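RECORD TYPE: inverse folding
INPUT: structure tokens
STRUCTURE:
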């Protein structure tokens, strides 16, 4: 009798030859923005880049420094985040909006 072993499947952390995604967020490191970003499965192997402001994070996407940005539109302390709402009202100038 021949016994065949089932091959073990490896979990790929990223596709070989493809650089990891780059995500911008409003920092600094260790704040709620980074924590929220780390909840996304796609961010597990991504290069996470902190930026000082919403505008800086979105400009990084526009300039090709980042593939996407996670920015707040409301906070529990300060309420609405005007910079993000202004970008949405202006049509995000070349950016798309995606909810999660």
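DESIGNED SEQUENCE:
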């Amino acid at each position: 009798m021949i016994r065949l072993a089932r091959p073990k499947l490896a979990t790929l952390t990223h596709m070989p030859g493809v650089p990891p995604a780059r995500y911008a967020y409003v920092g600094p490191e260790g704040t709620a923005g980074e924590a929220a970003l780390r909840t996304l499965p796609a961010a597990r192997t991504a290069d996470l880049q902190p930026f000082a402001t919403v505008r800086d994070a979105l400009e990084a996407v526009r300039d090709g420094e980042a593939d996407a940005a996670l920015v707040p539109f409301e906070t529990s302390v300060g309420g609405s985040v005007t910079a993000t709402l202004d970008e949405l009202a202006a049509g995000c100038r070349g950016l798309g909006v995606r909810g999660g």
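NOTES: Helices lie at 32-37, 54-62, 82-89.
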